[in-house]
TrEMBL record:
GO terms for cellular component: cytosolic large ribosomal subunit. Part of the 50S ribosomal subunit. The gene is rplM. InterPro entries: Ribosomal_uL13 (IPR005822), Ribosomal_uL13_bac-type (IPR005823), Ribosomal_uL13_CS (IPR023563), Ribosomal_uL13_sf (IPR036899). This is Large ribosomal subunit protein uL13. GO terms for biological process: negative regulation of translation; translation. It holds the Pfam family Ribosomal_L13.
Length: 153
């Protein structure tokens, strides 16, 4: 009887492509799941759960992301300084005015593995509030993501 072997993709296929996604008028959660799938490499035939087989993702127009319902005023983002009484809370609307990149970063980070692989995958995510990004030298491809069912971009 032969022992099962763990699949290891060739090293040449591990280097990822670069994609640009426009977050203007996209739903936060649906966009974050698509980004997490691309970062993990789950849509590639050489996907391996314990390896970084994903691609780089650049998000532009992070300040134009949308949420449904009352999440704009009721969704809270918390951070803690580590000191007693150091909990700070902020609503979605206030955080979007102050640091719009952090909203997408936190949503995607929550969908990645909670280990060293997840930390490595998170470094492949680049989020920018405006239209421009400094990654033109990588020749990123435009990627259309439709987060609103029934509506074509």
């Amino acid at each position: 009887m032969t022992a099962q072997k763990t699949y290891l993709p060739p090293v040449s296929t591990l280097q990822g492509d670069w994609y640009v996604i426009d977050a203007a008028d996209q739903r936060l959660g649906r966009l974050a799941t698509e980004i997490a799938m691309i970062l993990r490499g789950k849509r590639k035939p050489q996907y391996t759960p314990h390896l970084d087989t994903g691609d780089f993702v650049i998000i532009v127009n992070a300040e134009k992301i949308t949420v449904t319902g009352k999440k704009r005023s009721q969704k809270l983002y918390r951070r803690h300084s580590g000191r007693p009484g150091g909990m700070k809370t902020e609503t979605f609307a206030k955080l979007q005015d102050r640091l719009p990149e952090r909203i997408i970063e936190q949503a995607v980070k929550g969908m990645l593995p909670k280990n060293s692989l997840g930390k490595q995958l998170f470094t492949k995510l680049k989020v920018y509030a405006g239209e421009t990004h400094p990654h033109a030298a990588q020749q990123p491809k435009e990627l259309k993501v439709n987060t609103i069912p029934g509506v074509e971009n």
